[in-house]
Structures
1.
Amino acid sequence: MGCMKLCAWTVVVVLCALGKISGLDNGLALTPPMGWLAWERFRCNTDCKNDPDNCISDRLFRTMTDILVNEGYAAVGYEYINVDDCWPERERDSRGKLVPDRERFPFGMKSLADYVHSKGLKFGIYEDYGNFTCAGYPGVVGHLAGDAATFESWGVDYVKLDGCYALPADMDHGYPEFGRQLNLTGRQMVYSCSWPVYQIYAGMQPNFSSIIEHCNLWRNFDDIQDSWASVESIIDYYGNHQDVIVPNAGPGHWNDPDMLIIGNFGLSYEQSKTQFAIWAILAAPLLMSVDLRTIRPEYKAILQNRKIIEVDQDPLGIQGRRIYKHRGIEIWSRPVVPIHGQYYSYAVAFVNRRTDGTPSDVAVTLRELGLNNPAGYRVEDLYEDVDYGVLSPQTKIKVKVNPSGVVILRADAQPSYAYNAIPTRTPYALNDVFRLTKKK
Ligand code: GLA
């Protein structure tokens, strides 16, 4: 496997050299960022007097840092502790500097970042390109260089720059300019942008080549909420717009379908498995927004599923696609390593969007999924720990998918001595996929 990964990286490097993949040149986020982000679960709760355990405060972030390290999340790759909105004072100081809320962050942000770093993790913060953040705190406009320098001085590793109270047309220069200011500080900071989503809402066509060049990740669509309907709307958006969205992803530059809400109130166990599987197929950042103090073990196990995390973090960084959708059954597929000759390996997710109560059977040959390697594929189920062994392209696989649930398989291409090292064909065998779609 080590050698295979190396080969895959060689492909990435070669493609970069050919100019096929380009992105923000800060060397960061070569795989989608993983961590914990406060917003979806903890929102703008500033009431530390009445709700000290759940308010946006130094204490909340230190607690989550400890849990990330002590309860196995860091060991499987979760790395960033990210503050979202509502952290600063309502006013800058007399010199125009951002100040963390004095009561809720009494030791300041440098102290919090130092604590996160002392545990081997990285620290993220939130700001907004406009006059105000979405919750009405000071935005960076007019203070780009100063705020970038402030973040550098605090030891920030990741900046999410939102786009409320800004003109979408200004973002084409504003986002690159703030990114330039971050780079000028000399500190490497992951740059998360909301640039395209605000432009799409304003009816504009985002300039994705510029967005890829200036951001490590970006939002395309609505904020996630604590419901299956919200997760479904995001899955549909990414499937329905995949021809525009998918080509923009790659090492260093990722589409961000928003946070993982697994372990909260709105998703069933099946739906939680589906969110995690589809986020991995989408090469999405894995930013958990959940109370890690109270999460139930079965949800924790989903978030710590190493095999699915490995799909998400695949070094090729090719985002997957929806290759089949009919009568509530969807098949999503993502090319991954190892590659043998012209044949990629794949992660394949079967999703049941039906609500008729009984599990649905889906039967399909590997060939119909576009998996044509004559040497076959080693196939395993990533949730159930079932190893199907090496299967030929003609083999029909049959899976049972629970309502609003998922089955996710990994099919690793097997080697054959006849193959060359570099793939020569598209990772998606579209003709085969088309045949599948027509037949059903
Ligand atoms: C916007 C963003 C969210 C969150 C809030 C904070 O809605 O999209 O992710 O950061 O602002 O106010």
2.
Amino acid sequence: MRIMIVNDYEEMSKKAAHIIASQIVLKPNSILGFATGSTPINTYKELINLYKNGVIDFSEVTSFNLDEYFELSKDNPQSYDYFMKANLFNHINIDDDRINIPNGMTDNIERECAEYEKKMKEAGGIDLQLLGIGRNGHIGFNEPADHFQSDTHLVQLDDDTIEANSRFFDSVDEVPTKAISMGIGSIMRAKKILLFASGTGKAEAIYDTVKGPITPRVPASILQLHPDVVIIADKEAASRL
Ligand code: F6R
């Protein structure tokens, strides 16, 4: 694991965008794994700037998102499909056919998950996976559990996650309780992983990820076993290291 400690959210976002941009420059047909939530918003803004300034070109890039809420349609502003379009895809030249996000409205969960895994494999695997981290140490929506769940699957969200994500909804009752998420195996198969975190709310999760035992109780701790992980944490998120 390589840990980069930066001053604040802005610096974290610039560094993350530059790492993603260099991946695209080195391999224009990269397979990128994207995340949603608050952490990536300015990273995506910076990527849009780099695209508009002619530094990067997304025309050959393929993307796979980590997760999507279950039973939330694409046109719901809280869906991750909607989030990705609003915060990144609508502003760059990525080909619609190369965008992959689990379909939360599927009527066949097992088939949807198996097909998502198959598509990732057929694309050649993810070159660079971007990860935020939950306050409880989750990555994707792999919540603390008794064992690591390998492939894309349906997840029951933790109360802590539902509470954390309620800030995007009118009330906590509106937050979906389930999601489709890449599994720990799907994430660990990525060739490179970039995890980023900002703010004191993430300090304990970052400490446990980097210095704690490898345990499914802290899903991100498995990243200690991955050969190519960069963590960018701002001073607050790194405050317990
Ligand atoms: C989002 C995802 C989640 C978030 C995590 C942190 O696609 O998979 O693991 O990365 O919950 O969310 P924020 O960035 O909102 O603190």
